[in-house]
Structure formats: structure tokens, C-alpha cells
């Protein structure tokens, strides 16, 4: 009898652990990218693949410490499609909680999209100011997946990003 009770308790503990872990997963529903304006300013890019994204955050991390560099909330939830906004100044259609200050050379930044209820997010993209200098207007740099399943950083024309990035996440 004790053994049966112990097994039942262990089974319940395992089920609770699985439920807790699976309940914490946020589904990726968009792809974040980075581009530049005609005058070389950083431009956030979000391609929403399914439901919605409410905003975006730019951060850096060192060890376990993450620092928010910029954050933006869309005036209306972003549905499927492409959205862009300048990272260094307020942008139309976006409430700017904090614009990105001048980016520091040699620092890696991470841009990602999110929902207010934390039900969905975007893939994140990593970049440095030096990476931005390699971009031209009309191209998007993002972290995608290669045909062999490995992660890869891609830089593609915006139309190719729009047509293929959701399938590559």
C-alpha cells in the first residue's frame, strides 16, 4: 500500500513538473530583424507570422545581467505582416518607452518582439554596430535556420525576408 501511494505521489510530482515547464514556454510567432534607414540609422524589423506582437525590446547581456537599451509598444497590436520603426527616435505608430541611445562599438545587442500577456514572442536577432555598417537600406539581417537545421545569420532583401523568414523560424 505504501509503495502504491509513493508511486502515485511520484507520478503526480512528475506531471506537475512537466505542466510547469510546458506552461512557461512562449511560442515564437514572429521574426525580428535589423536594417538601416537611407541615412544609416538603425531600423527595427518585425515580421509577424501568425497571431500578434505588441512591442519590441532591444537589450544587451553580460553574464546573467540583461540591460534594456530600448523598448517600444505598437499603438495597435501588429498582426501578420511586416512592421518597421527607427530605434533611435520616436516612430509613427509606436509608443517609445526608451529610444536606443547611440550604440557602443563592440557590444552585441538583441532585438526581440513580445506580447503584453507573454503568450507569444519573436525570434531574437543579435547584431553589433559594426554589423549595421555592413547593411544597406532595403536589406534585413536576422537569425534564421539553415536547411540543415543549424542556426545562421542571414542578410537578405526585405522582400525575401517577407517571403521566407516565417518558414525558416
Count of structural domains: 1
The main pleated sheet reads as: 6 strands, mixed
Helix content: 10-25%
Uncertain ranges: 1-23
Shape: globular
What Rg, in angstroms, do the CA atoms define?
19 Å
Under CATH at level 1, the class stands as: Mainly Beta
- SSE pattern: HEEEEEEEEEHEEH
Give the averaged pLDDT, no decimals: 84
CATH architecture: Sandwich
Q: What structural class do helix, strand and pairing data support?
A: alpha+beta
For the termini, the CA-CA separation is 50 Å
**How many helices?**
3
Short précis:
With 169 residues, this protein is α+β, with helices and mostly antiparallel strands. The chain has helices at 2-24, 129-133, 158-164, and strands spanning 27-36, 42-48, 53-62, 65-78, 81-86, 94-98, 109-114, 120-123, 125-127, 139-145, 151-157. A hairpin with a 5-residue loop joins strand 1 and strand 2 (42-48).
Description:
The protein has one domain: Immunoglobulin-like (Sandwich). Strands 1, 2, 5, 8, 10 and 11 form a six-stranded mixed β-sheet that branches. A five-stranded antiparallel β-sheet has the order 6-4-3-7-9. It has three helices and eleven strands; from the N terminus they run αβββββββββαββα. By secondary structure, it is of the alpha+beta class. It is globular, with a radius of gyration of 19 Å. The chain has helices spanning 2-24, 129-133, 158-164; strands at residues 27-36, 42-48, 53-62, 65-78, 81-86, 94-98, 109-114, 120-123, 125-127, 139-145, 151-157. The model is unreliable at 1-23 (pLDDT under 50). Helix content is 21%, strand content 47%. The N and C termini lie far apart (50 Å).
Amino acid at each position: 500500500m505504501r509503495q502504491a501511494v509513493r508511486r502515485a505521489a511520484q507520478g503526480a510530482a512528475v506531471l506537475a513538473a512537466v505542466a510547469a515547464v510546458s506552461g512557461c514556454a512562449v511560442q515564437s510567432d514572429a521574426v525580428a530583424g535589423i536594417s538601416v534607414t537611407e541615412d544609416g540609422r538603425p531600423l527595427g524589423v518585425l515580421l509577424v507570422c501568425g497571431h500578434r506582437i505588441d512591442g519590441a525590446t532591444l537589450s544587451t547581456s553580460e553574464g546573467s545581467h540583461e540591460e534594456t537599451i530600448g523598448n517600444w509598444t505598437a499603438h495597435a497590436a501588429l498582426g501578420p505582416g511586416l512592421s518597421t520603426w527607427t530605434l533611435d527616435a520616436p516612430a509613427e505608430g509606436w509608443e517609445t518607452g526608451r529610444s536606443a541611445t547611440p550604440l557602443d562599438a563592440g557590444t552585441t545587442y538583441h532585438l526581440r518582439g513580445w506580447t503584453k500577456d507573454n503568450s507569444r514572442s519573436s525570434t531574437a536577432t543579435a547584431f553589433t554596430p559594426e554589423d549595421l555598417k555592413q547593411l544597406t537600406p532595403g536589406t534585413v539581417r536576422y537569425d534564421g535556420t539553415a536547411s540543415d537545421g543549424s542556426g545562421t545569420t542571414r542578410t537578405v532583401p526585405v522582400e525575401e525576408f517577407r517571403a521566407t523568414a516565417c518558414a525558416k523560424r
